């Protein structure tokens, strides 16, 4: 019965729901059509990435949370500890992809337009220029071994922009008091169907659909 309730609520497209006090998650809608980022990122990649990859992280995250809930109710400490890696990986996958979709925007909706306001001037101060920032992020993203992410974040304590990479699906919060402004997925599933093994070309083109407006909004909220 509980599972049927969960399935029904997922179909309603709610971002999360509470079952027996346990909060679970569902796939957020994309703010644009799958093909809207072409030619930078193909519609086929976007559809698979969203419907299959992101959905799988959510499914496995919910499963792990339900197992955690049961283990905690039984006081089963070894199982609680054992579940941490699945929660970090799949929960991180959900967190990271939820940010990633908002980091992108179709060109006709401002994708690729350079940041204005305080973020634009802080980038110039911290990195010299927007072009210098892009080159540094591309170099670090290309150098990620295996699968992971390259991030532009803001260190809230130091009020400074930082470039960081994380392995697998580790979210940026695993690196300290950093808030993500932009995250680029460098897993092969994000580019291989279109760019094959040439990750640097994917990194070069993704800036054409980067949603700097979103990054600026987060930055201004964190560093008013
Ligand atoms: Fe991904």
From TrEMBL:
Its cofactor is Mn(2+). InterPro entries: Fe/Mn_Superoxide_Dismutase, Mn/Fe_SOD, Mn/Fe_SOD_BS, Mn/Fe_SOD_C, Mn/Fe_SOD_N, Mn/Fe_SOD_N_sf, SOD_C_sf. It is found in: Mitochondrion matrix. It catalyses: 2 superoxide + 2 H(+) = H2O2 + O2. SUPFAM superfamilies: Fe,Mn superoxide dismutase (SOD), C-terminal domain, Fe,Mn superoxide dismutase (SOD), N-terminal domain. GO terms for molecular function: manganese ion binding; superoxide dismutase activity. Mn(2+) binds at residues 49, 97, 185, 189. Residues 24-105 form the Manganese/iron superoxide dismutase N-terminal domain. One of its GO terms (cellular component) is mitochondrial matrix. Its main location: mitochondrion. Its EC number is 1.15.1.1. Keywords: Manganese, Metal-binding, Mitochondrion, Oxidoreductase. PROSITE patterns: SOD_MN. It is an enzyme of class 1 (oxidoreductase). Residues 115-217 form the Manganese/iron superoxide dismutase C-terminal domain. It comes from the Eukaryota. Belongs to the iron/manganese superoxide dismutase family. Homotetramer. Destroys radicals which are normally produced within the cells and which are toxic to biological systems. Destroys superoxide anion radicals which are normally produced within the cells and which are toxic to biological systems. This is Superoxide dismutase. The lineage of its organism: Eukaryota, Viridiplantae, Streptophyta, Embryophyta, Tracheophyta.
């Amino acid at each position: 019965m509980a599972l049927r309730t969960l399935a029904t609520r997922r179909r309603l497209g709610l971002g999360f729901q509470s079952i027996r006090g346990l909060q679970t998650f569902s796939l957020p809608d994309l703010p644009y059509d799958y093909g809207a980022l072409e030619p930078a990122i193909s519609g086929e990649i976007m559809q698979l990435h969203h419907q299959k990859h992101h959905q799988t992280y959510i499914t496995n995250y919910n499963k792990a949370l339900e197992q955690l809930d049961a283990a905690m109710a039984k006081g089963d400490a070894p199982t609680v500890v054992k579940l941490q890696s699945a929660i970090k990986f799949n929960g991180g996958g959900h967190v990271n992809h939820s940010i990633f979709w908002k980091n992108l925007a179709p060109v006709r909706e401002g994708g690729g337009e350079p940041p204005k306001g305080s973020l634009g001037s802080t980038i110039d101060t911290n990195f010299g220029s927007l072009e210098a920032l892009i080159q540094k992020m591309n170099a670090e993203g290309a150098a990620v071994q295996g699968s992971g992410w390259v991030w532009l974040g803001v260190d809230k304590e130091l009020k400074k922009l930082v470039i960081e990479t994380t392995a697998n699906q580790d979210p940026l919060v695993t690196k300290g008091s950093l808030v993500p402004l932009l995250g680029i997925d460098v897993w092969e599933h994000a580019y291989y169907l279109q760019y094959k093994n040439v990750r640097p070309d994917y990194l070069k083109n993704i800036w054409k659909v980067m949603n700097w407006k979103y990054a600026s909004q987060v930055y201004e909220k964190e560093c008013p």
